[in-house]
Specification:
The protein is an alpha+beta fold. The chain is 32% helix and 25% strand. The protein has one domain (20-159): Beta Barrel (OB fold (Dihydrolipoamide Acetyltransferase, E2P)), CATH 2.40.50. The chain contains five helices and eight strands. A hairpin with a 2-residue loop joins strand 6 (104-110) and strand 7 (113-114). This is TNase-like domain-containing protein.
């Protein structure tokens, strides 16, 4: 009985440990798929498709569906920031590791710049998370950046008649 109590206490203590820094890794961007998705080679030698956390950009044409307004500009904006560069990938403690398509979910930064925030501020992405999910850690700051971009008429907010977000 004492042993069971000790094991339970240890499990509780381990479970109550403060969460450390979110998981972070380095990778090199090998392809930009669209304004919020890219393919990277990780430091461990793994090729991974990454869906950027906390943002949504217009979709490229796919499977007979036409491209959404601003899709090519959003893709170009992301490529200008990250193409062929080393980036940091940071997980979010509130989010899943992968989405339903098997893409790794991560914040992306390059040289200390939060790429998602930069795309939102430029108006080429919107702050977003699935309705079924908890808001990501950077959600509030991304929402503020989006409001500034909308007020300034940046990117999508001036070039696209409707932004379906």
């Amino acid at each position: 009985m004492k042993r069971a109590a000790a094991v339970l206490m240890l499990a509780l203590l381990v479970g109550c440990q403060p969460q450390g820094e979110p998981s972070r890794g380095l990778a090199v961007v090998v392809d930009v798929i669209d304004g919020d998705t890219l393919t990277v080679d990780t430091a461990e030698g793994e090729r991974v498709r990454v869906r950027m956390l906390g943002i949504d950009a217009p979709e490229e044409a796919k499977d007979g569906t036409p491209a959404e307004c601003g899709a090519s500009e959003a893709k170009e904006a992301l490529a200008a920031l990250v193409d062929d560069r080393q980036v940091g990938l940071t997980a979010d403690s509130r989010s899943d590791v992968e989405d339903r398509y098997g893409r790794r979910l991560a914040y992306v930064d390059v040289d200390g710049l939060d790429v998602g925030a930069a795309l939102i501020q430029a108006g080429w992405a919107a702050a977003w998370h699935p309705r079924s999910a908890v808001e990501p850690e950077r959600g509030p700051s991304y929402q503020k950046a989006q409001k500034r971009a909308q007020a300034a008429g940046s990117g999508l907010w001036s070039t696209c008649p409707t932004v379906g977000r």
